[in-house]
Amino acid sequence: MPEPILAVTGVSKTYKGGFTALHDLDLTIHKGEIFALLGPNGAGKTTLISIICGIVTPSTGTIRVAGHDALTDYKAARSRIGLVPQELSVDMFETVLATVTFSRRLFGRSGHSAYIEQVLRDLSLWDKRHAKIMELSGGMKRRVLIAKALAHEPEILFLDEPTAGVDVALRRDMWKLVHRLRERGTTVILTTHYIEEAEEMADRVGVINKGKLLLVDEKTALMQKLGKRELELTVVEPLDAVPDGLERWQLSLANEGKTLRYVFDSTEEDTGIPSLLSALADRHIAFKDLETSKSSLEDIFVELVGERA
């Protein structure tokens, strides 16, 4: 198996005041994958990215980026990384083209490049290339940050909360761009607390909370493994309460007593549904509709973070 493009081993970070932001974290990312790091605000997502990008020094551990030690061979490792931070960090008086070209030159690349034109076109910025950053909307400024990060043709692109506070149109554009980048072989790692973002884009998902990586798995496998399903029964006659004798199914009432809800594990051989329907028939509870739905990544995330908080 080829060497992973990113290998984080035993990384922890404790600040001078004694606060530990990361606890002995291991993470391996392979070339060309889209990896989503999910976690609530303050979970340690930005700290981890800052350590990998050389902005923050870890207390313990090693980081290898495209075969380079990020601590002892910082320059080579950093040149493989593009980072789109949460905060705007651009000269507001510079033009879009000058800003992106400067970022490219910082990494020793030639300034005049068809590549930069392509990046600006991909991000719908080409028509704004001569505009000053201060003249742009918030969404356009966010696009400039992405263009800056891509300017030197990095192998790994970090997107730290890429769509926080941006409109739906930009969010969808970014999703398309991420998939295009992956097609070119770029590895994309994004941190987010928007579950839909991970569900839409990621191949694998990691869940981080309180500086600990709780779980890493393929998105589909994760949803199958932990995915509970919900059965909704619409009853003919509204109920005032869950009928006696049905405690084992832990049913709940919704929709003013018109809906009985049952949550079950779809991976179990006995889901409990046949016996539930039989028990309802015994109690002469008729229903006119029955519907099942899968749990979302959000349900799984809430369950994981809640369990291991």
TrEMBL record:
Identify the keywords attached in UniProt to this record, alphabetized: ATP-binding, Nucleotide-binding, Transport
Q: Per UniProt, what is one Pfam family of this protein?
A: ABC_tran
Coiled-coil annotated spans:
none
| Residues annotated as domain ABC transporter | 6-235
List the Gene Ontology MF annotations in alphabetical order: ATP binding; ATP hydrolysis activity
User: This chain belongs to which protein, by name?
Assistant: ABC-2 type transport system ATP-binding protein
